[in-house]
Amino acid sequence: MQSVQIGKNQAGQRLDKFLHKYLPNAGKSFLYKMLRKKNITLNGKKAEGSEILMVGDEVRVFFSEETFAKFSGGSFAGACLDAAAMEDGRLKGGERTGKGAETADLAEECLTAYERLRGISVVYEDADCLILDKPAGILTQKAEKADLSLNEWMIGYLLVRNPAFRKELSTFHPSVCNRLDRNTSGIVLCGKSLAGSQYLSQCIRERKVHKFYMAICAGEFLKEQRVDGYLVKDLVNNVVKVTKIPSGGESEEKSLRISTVYRPVEAVAGYTLLEVELITGKTHQIRGQLASMGFPLVGDRKYGSASENSKLRRKYGLEYHLLHAGRVVFETDAYGIPGQTLPGKRFCAPCPETFIRIGRELGFEKLWNNQNTDM
């Protein structure tokens, strides 16, 4: 018999979802059969799998050691033992096996990301949530297996602050809750715990958190506008097309409704400094929408003007688009157990030095460098 006690990063999810992580090599039908036959129990009783786990619950698995090893790949218990052994210095290279080895490899990868990725800063942190300021040039999440991203940096940061967190990685991975393009800088919301991830994702889904960007575009954008439309992803070429009515094609997904508010801050000599508020949040939404309106982001290699970008590169050294996620505001009714301190708060990340330098070169005086964060 194997037993595991549910901690805060396993609580809040259905039992069957936890079992898929705990026994990753077991099929869904097999797990439900084991629940029906009471070979898997919850708190000593028969369970259906739909139960929501709570901190302190006990899951018991009545398998032989061989069967358990087959379906777990080393499992959570093995990962915990490996983590404890590594912390004590008892586990040497080459001795890790099964799930414990996977957990150790992930931990090493994340610690490497924490050491190598520079310029990331913490805007806010509590027991469940983390708000980070990402520099341009760093991925939010991996695009390729070998990539190091903000997501790995975050896990590395948590491991450095609390080495015992390593044993949680077998059944829970902290994760970013919103994404920025590689060359878009600014605020990224992250869940440290399962409850924190669920809370932040719910705030985003229900629009209880508002996201504001600063952007510099080509052309003089003279009045505030709320712009609605449809966005279609071209998965082959990794670009989007923005239209006023739904459209699609063989290489594209169905149209997604998008809505954005654009507020001009300054318009100077053929360029505009914009504050942008996302009502929806889709891939390349701001970049694609501005380009479709005739106001592409300066430096945007995918949607912008090649000749304009070349001119700005020669004159100012601009290598990427100027778009910065500088502020998030939580609504006063955005309540949740892990988010008790967040409702009504705003968090800010100042524009990067490159953004400010080039903005001043273009003649802007009202560059947003707001560091006023409510704590």
Molecular structure report:
Mean pLDDT is 86; it is low at 75-97. The protein has ten helices and 15 strands. The protein has 375 residues and is an alpha+beta fold. The strands form two sheets. Strands 5, 6, 7, 8, 9, 10, 11, 12, 13, 14 and 15 form an eleven-stranded mixed sheet that branches. Strands 1-4-2-3 form a four-stranded antiparallel sheet. Helix 5 (98-116) packs across helix 6. It starts with a strand and ends in a 14-residue tail after the last helix.
How does the SSE layout of this entry go?
Layout: E1 2-5, H1 15-22, H2 28-36, E2 40-42, E3 45-46, E4 58-61, H3 65-72, H4 75-88, H5 98-116, E5 121-125, E6 129-134, H6 150-161, E7 175-176, E8 185-191, H7 194-205, E9 209-218, E10 225-234, E11 239-243, E12 256-268, E13 271-278, H8 285-292, H9 306-316, E14 323-330, E15 346-348, H10 353-361
Parallel strand pairs: 8-14
Antiparallel strand pairs: 1-4, 2-3, 2-4, 5-6, 6-8, 7-8, 9-13, 9-14, 10-11, 10-12, 12-13, 14-15
Helix pairs in contact: 4-5, 5-6
What's the short version?
The chain has 10 helices and 15 strands.
